[in-house]
Amino acid sequence: MIKYFAQHPTAANLLMIIFLIMGALSISSIRRETFPDYISTQVQIQAIYPGASTEEVEEAICQRIENAVDGINYVSEVRSTAREGVAVVVVEMSDGGDMSTFINDIRQNVETIDSFPAEVKLPVVTLLNRDDLVVNIAVTGSMPLVDLKKYCEQLKDQLKQEEGVSQVTVKGFSDAQIQIHVPVSSLMQYNLSLDDISTTIRMQSLDMPAGMIETSDQDILIKIADLRRTPNELSDLVVVSSRSGASVRLGNIARINETFERAEEKITLNGKRTGLLQVTKNKQEDILAVFDSVDRFLQRIQKTKPRSVEFHMSQDKASVVRERLALLIKNGWQGLLLVFFALWLFFDFKLAFWVALGLPVSFAGALFFFPKIGLSINMMTMVALLIALGLLMDDAIVITENIVSHLHKDKSPLKAVVAGVTEVANGVVSSFLTTVCVFGPLAFITGNMGKVLRVVPMVLILVLAISLVEAFLILPHHLAHSSKPDAFDEKKRNWFRRKFDEAFLKLRDKALGGLVDKVVTNRYLSLGLVAGIFIFSISMIPAGILKFVAFPDSDGDYIEARILMPPGTSLGRTEEVVDLLSETLKGVDSEFSKIQPSGQKLVKAVTVQYSQNITAGETGSHVATIIVDLLPAGVRVGRIAEFLAKWRELTGDVPGALSIHYTQSEGRVAGLPLEVRLTGDNLDELKAASESLKSWFNQFQGVFNLSDDLRPGKPEINIRLKSGAHTLGVTTKMIASQFKAAFQGISIAEIQRGKDSLEVIAQVDHINRDSIADLETFHILLPDGTLVPASVVADFTMDRGYSTVSRVNGQRTLTIQGDVDNSVANSSEILSVFSKTYAAKLEQNHPGIKVSIKGQASESAKTATSMGRALLIGIIGIFVILSFQFNSYTEPLVVMTAIPLALIGAIWGHILLSLNFSTPSMIGFISLAGIVVNDSILLVEFIKIGRQEGLPLIEAASQASRQRFRAIFLTSVTTTAGLLPLLSETSAQAKSLVPLAASIVFGLTASTLLVLLIVPALYMVIADFGLIAAEIPVEDADMKPMMTAKADE
Question: d(Cα 492, Cα 691) in Å, to the nearest integer?
Fold first, then answer.
């Protein structure tokens, strides 16, 4: 088939064109996103228990749901959270389960629970899918809030008509209500109660069918249509009437207004009240396509919007994706140019061009399969393509170099191509299989980080498979028709080409050759020296010189301050704290704007979302989040860690605040750097242990944002009837209804108005609700119509429970979380010290408490274990393949020495660049293992070829490095060149990818040099011990060589 494609006039070109067209047609159907999505393994069960305390929710709902899901197959973990009035249970599925079966089993088991209290609403079971934010649209205008919400709802409906936009949510408003405030004096004057008014409204305001008239030619429906939907319509209802015809209408005795249920649910933008349109995407949608549709809509709507309305886009995640992808594409083009330049140095322009053309062909073929196997264009797949940029050249270089060697022997182009490709076919396929052995298992690594990183090996295998087809079927044809028999005539080569080749041969024969001879001659000393270097390099990790972090810091474009006040804190007090932080933020902006390019302001916009704090997981008047849009990372000067540290410093301690969490908005796949879970039955003991642990963590510099998830709840006033209250005709139900009417209100009806559902609430007006004294002096209406202070018939006691109780696998837990500034401290070292010195002491001081480490440490350990297992499987696979190829058990071991040699370079590369070793570093090193063994394969094979040709073993070992120097050097240079732009990238957006590039570039550089020296020496040592025959039997001399013996001659 190789000969057929090489000599056929159109077959190879048609195949190339098909690949290019398939790739071009597929690009539009490939999703673009920040990070790869993955199938959710979590099912959420949520149940509402109105008015119930946290402890009641825990006992009545959480425990019963936990019992119901116990025994379901593939349950990995059950996490429950009980809050005031609501329970959330998350059930995580372990590997190997089927999500459809899993969620159906959970739904069926939950539906069979018949012991819930009657007030509990039906639990809702949902799959926890990830919806990515695209952009927020802030809508401001000088109009009443009710009208602003209506306008935002109209915009939402219009926006969802745009192509690709399916998920838009209006935020900044709570549910609308019609509130009816009736003074006590009016109730007494007309001898009414709120129940009377409620009954009147229900009787007079309604829509209902009333039958049908059947005429001879048609049916006519009869309907009562007198539902009052506005305050004005409700005010006209008659609540009191007399026989004389006099009537009192609701508007005469009550104040009726339309407002929002919870005042604390509001959003401001740069200090102005705003409605927010939050545009998100599901995992099937393209973030850039969605954003473009939103942008077009806003440009169009500008012409028809009211004059006072203004739009402002914030938290533009789509532009971040666009910038990051553009950054990687820029690095890709730069890498491609460097690769082409390296090829041109060793081959003529035409050969270099055809070799380099394999890159777009292979990429196009791979992109065709992206949507077929669920891959998208994201940071990780783009990095995989950058790695492939240099890696793809290996096979093409080996083939081209071998073809060139045959052209040197004055063969015709076609014969040289066929002979050259055929000769190396087995070796190229073997190299591909060994690479797949390393990358293949990586596609199955576990953990949340593993789910994100596993696309890298998937893309590499896909691209390498396409490149193998291109190298065997397309490249030979182009080389056969572009190579001239006299192309290597020394007289026709230009001055630069002759000088470069002379210099390279001098480097090979004298510098490298002389060094190889010395290393092989003094092989035991050389191996001992390299072993010492390896051990010394590895010791850099336990010595703390090379530190480990789960995932490197990556600067985004947004920072947040998440405010948590004690539950029950008024909205006014929370607003004061927000104002304080907004003022100190101005100081941060003033200081850092001075160093920004062209004097640009660091802070672009400030959004405050009240009643939101995702760190605390709570809502209410006591929480708020300040979201700051910064100058984009691509042009910004300074690190986010510096901005946050300055903001914390300027703000200082805020009186009364439980916590203020300063962080960037970018989500963390692996969790927080510090995360410790305490397990125990006694909540007070858990809280005491948490305070001790937080104090211990605080002794380390660089630790900040420490908090736990067991916090005091709102103060509670418990009311009990006095023993003699029944003599006055007072019952518990009577005072409960009167207190509810006065302090909460009575729900009368739900009115549907368009798409909105409005609740009608009646409440006693002019009641002081500011203190316990107001409660005690509140007057209770007795059955005989007299009023007495509540303190006469009831006792009042204060209590305070916990706002949230967390449970894992049926046990109460408390989780302490914290951040670490990696420039000051290292979370792995802190947790190591904790495990060795303080964990046992903490358990001893707090009986019944168990300690476990979670977060980044747990996730990175899970992923690292999975990657280690994948590497072991890959090494075993390589050994098996090479054993078949070499018919030996020892020679594969010689080949695989390249892997630890590469680790030397990877370690020192991180140290030289002041990088922490991280999960991307590990991915880079494991990927490197699949690359460096190919060079060793070439060397060992050429040693065997030299022995077949009758050379003494020591000479064959020395000559192999000379003969394969150009191929090994060139494949290493092209791989390095492809990643060099990324390695040297200074943009904050590429920080998380630099460690991966560092592992490959420095590891490959060190491995290239050491392999050329150490593999021949190690081969000789094994022969010294008789593990390899000193001479190859004559009957084996006709074995087909993998490569030509003298490719450089």
Answer: 82
